[in-house]
Specification:
single chain; YeiH family protein; cell membrane; UPF0324_pro
């Protein structure tokens, strides 16, 4: 099979993500620039790769964590998680009605912002019977803000002298998608990365109760609910790293590979963020996404700065 110059350039940029100088924000920026100049030549395969590589990379990060510390981080983020999810979904649905936005789009954007971005949208969409256009609008709105957050949040954290602990909690609550949470926290520091990953995945488990609520309100069968099984493997990785002896030689290699994998994931995500796609989203859904994102970002920032020392 003949490979075009376009495809070769894309593959070389993928390989560049393995270079030490390419961090998650740079990888995302390269992907976005590429997307404006040329269409991703492997778009369908890219979506499948993002899905599996993100899960494998997050599981791999578990080999760099201690179970007791992870449990403590989960406890610290628990109360923030409950409050933020309730406020975000409630505000999103209310504002959706106020702005006369399609309620299915409002539900998708609200759950994506509240829980874990694209994963939540993918889980909720079959339950509320959203069509491809509604899903595309929600994902486009959420991923646009994810991209901004990846660059903006570390700068805000440093400006306000947030500790690693504070930033880890805040980024896990206020950034939508797991990939951008981990990317921003990875730039901020190793402790922030551990805390953010743990809190974000604990947050992702709330897909289940939220899905059940939407299923009942939409009169949909519970069999349509998707369970994020990979989070269990992430926990097993933490337990293995904490309690299985003689993993010292292997665990750092797995973590290093996982960080590189996440950098590649963000390049691949960026390569699909074309300007024309966002033009089709429309103003109202993006406006809704921005309002509830800013709302939960500010509220969670103030809460973290006040409570977490």
């Amino acid at each position: 099979m003949k490979i075009s110059t376009h495809q070769i350039v894309f593959l070389l940029l993928c390989l560049a993500c393995f270079l030490p100088v390419v961090n998650p924000p740079i990888a995302l920026a390269i992907g976005i620039v590429f997307a404006q100049l040329a269409k991703n030549p492997f778009q369908e395969k890219t979506q499948l790769t993002i899905n599996w590589l993100l899960k494998m990379s997050v599981i791999g990060l578990g080999f760099g964590m201690n179970f007791d510390k992870a449990l403590a981080a989960g406890k610290d983020g628990f109360i923030f998680t409950i409050i933020s999810i309730s406020l975000t979904i409630g505000a999103g649905l209310l504002l959706g009605k106020l702005f006369r936005i399609d309620q299915k789009i409002a539900k998708l954007i609200s759950s994506g912002t509240a829980i874990c971005g694209g994963s939540a949208i993918a889980a909720i969409s079959p339950i509320i019977k959203a069509d491809s256009k509604q899903i595309s609008i929600a994902i486009g709105s959420v991923f646009l803000l994810n991209s901004i957050a990846l660059f903006l949040f570390p700068a805000i954290g440093h400006y306000f002298n947030m500790s690693q602990h504070q930033f880890g909690i805040w980024s896990a609550i206020a950034i939508h998608d797991t990939s951008s949470v981990v990317g921003a926290a990875q730039v901020y520091g190793n402790e922030a990365l551990e805390i953010a990953t743990t809190v974000k995945l604990a947050r992702a488990l709330w897909i289940l109760p939220v899905s059940v609520l939407f299923a009942f309100s939409s009169h949909t069968a519970l069999k349509n609910i998707k369970i994020p099984y990979f989070i269990g493997l992430f926990i097993l990785a933490i337990l293995a790293n904490t309690y299985i002896p003689n993993l010292d030689w292997l665990a750092p290699k797995i973590v290093a590979f996982s960080k590189t994998g996440l950098t590649l994931v963000l390049f691949l995500i960026g390569s699909g963020l074309r300007y024309n796609s966002f033009k089709r989203v429309g103003v109202k859904p993006v406006f809704l996404a921005v309002i509830i994102w800013v709302f939960i970002s500010v509220i969670s920032f103030l809460g973290v700065m006040e409570i977490i020392q």
